[in-house]
Amino acid sequence: TISFIIPFEVGRSQYRQEDIAAFIDSLKQPEFKPFGFIVTAYSSIDGNPEKNMQIRGERISSIVNAIRAYSHSTVPVTTKSSDSWDLFYTDIVATDWQFLKTKSKEEVMAYITRGDNLKKMDAVLAKHRFAQVQIIVEYDISTSRKEQAYTLYAFHRALAEYNEDKAL
């Protein structure tokens, strides 16, 4: 399974080209056969729940369209949508907002919308506006030629990332 995170800005449902570059690059791997895609869209907890659900749906459509355009594949795409309450409660641990962990969702929302708290908390909330793309794949390394092609691809990618351990 290969996994990617595609970030989104507040209210945006269209990806930027640079945000999916790693996904596009992964599709160029040699002897690579995808069996399925799983797309899970998230939205931060701020904002209207119905609007957030609509934005998550639009993010899913955007990513599914990219999968179809770049993978040239008809393998199934499973989609999921989720708010980010669990992520929020995890990410506020050891921060100035840890006290919100014991509060109800309604109390948290009341706090966020009070004064300039939304602006202050945006660094935490921004981490929850994303789509996760997972590709279930099989690499064909049944012959030495196919194995060599994949190994060289992985080696050069590790070098480009300056990851010596991975390259070795």
Any overview of this molecule?
With 168 residues, the protein is of the alpha+beta class. It has seven helices and four strands. A four-stranded mixed beta sheet has the order 1-4-2-3. The protein is elongated.
Supply the key terms.
168 residues; alpha+beta; four-stranded mixed sheet; 7 helices; 4 strands
H-E order = EHEHEHHHEHH
**Structure classification:** alpha+beta
Spans with pLDDT under 50 lasting ≥5 residues?
Answer: none
**What's the rounded overall pLDDT mean?**
89
Tell me the radius of gyration.
19 Å
Outline: elongated
Tally the helices: what do you get? 7
Biggest β-sheet strands, sense, barrel: 4 strands, mixed
Strands ordered across the widest β-sheet: 1-4-2-3
The helix content, as a percent range, equals 40-55%
Note the beta-strand portion. 15-25%
How many strand elements? 4
CA distance, first residue to last residue: 22 Å
Secondary-structure blueprint:
Layout: E1 2-7, H1 21-26, E2 32-43, H2 49-71, E3 77-83, H3 85-91, H4 105-113, H5 117-126, E4 130-139, H6 144-160, H7 164-167
Parallel strand pairs: 2-3
Antiparallel strand pairs: 1-4, 2-4
In short:
45% of the residues lie in helices and 21% in strands.
